[in-house]
Amino acid sequence: MTKNPKTLAVLGILVLSLALAACATTRQTRSVETSGFLGDYSQLQEGEKGQAQLIYVNPNTKFSAYDAIMIDSVTLWEDSETSELSQEDQQMLTDFFYQALHEKLSKDFQVVDSPGPRVMRLRAAIIEAKGARVVMNSVTSIIPQFRLLSTLLGRATDTAPWVGKATAEVEITDSMTDVRLVAGVDQRTGTKALRSGLKTWSDVKTVFDYWAGRMATRLQELRTQA
Q1: What is the per-residue pLDDT across 8-46, written as a single tens digit (0 to 9) for each?
Q2: What is the distance, to the nearest Å, from the Cα of residue 185 to the centroid of all Cα atoms in its chain?
Q3: What are the backbone dihedrals phi and psi of residue 165, each rounded to the nearest 5 degrees, phi first?
Q4: DSSP β-bridge partners for residue 148
Q5: Which CATH number does the domain housing residue 37 bear?
Q6: What contacts 24, CB < 8 A, 6 or more positions away?
Q7: 128 with 103: CB under 8 angstroms?
Q8: Which terminus of the chain has fewer CB atoms gathered within 10 Å of its CB, N or C?
């Protein structure tokens, strides 16, 4: 049976939409710089695929011994870019990262407000947060030629000029002894995938969600290891 050309066109659009939805909306940059937030970086090593760019996991920790976590308020580490953000944007960014961490981690851990046995403590800092240029985003998200140009420029300069970018440092310790259990430094940038949207902080928020989800998954993996 011959399909109507309009039906074929609709099917084609659906297939294309599904393919685009499968594309990653953020990617890890090629390098990252430390800020001083973590203090001691001597334990951190270059991460493997799927890990933070700099990572440390305490080999002597029995992660299955922990079933609760404290999440400190997220800090915005001041630099030449973040210092120019409005108070509203600073509050929005720290709140969003905290909410992402709380949402993802609370699926596997009880989130508590005070130290105790079987409790980990997480502290995180947003080291860099650059919003996308919304007007240029509107152009690159609509005109394929401009989107291709931004992708090519991104590969050459490590981040496309019209997308958002964020850097974070995170440390998890034993809440009673302050012994470091996990630490990481990572930087990710937008890729201009269509579903990332046209909002100024869309890419950055997507990065926060990615980090929170990846952290929750990795901690659960560590808990189930022998």
Answers
A1: 444 444 434 433 333 357 777 777 888 889 999 999 999
A2: 11
A3: -150, 150
A4: none
A5: 3.40.50
A6: 191, 193
A7: no
A8: N
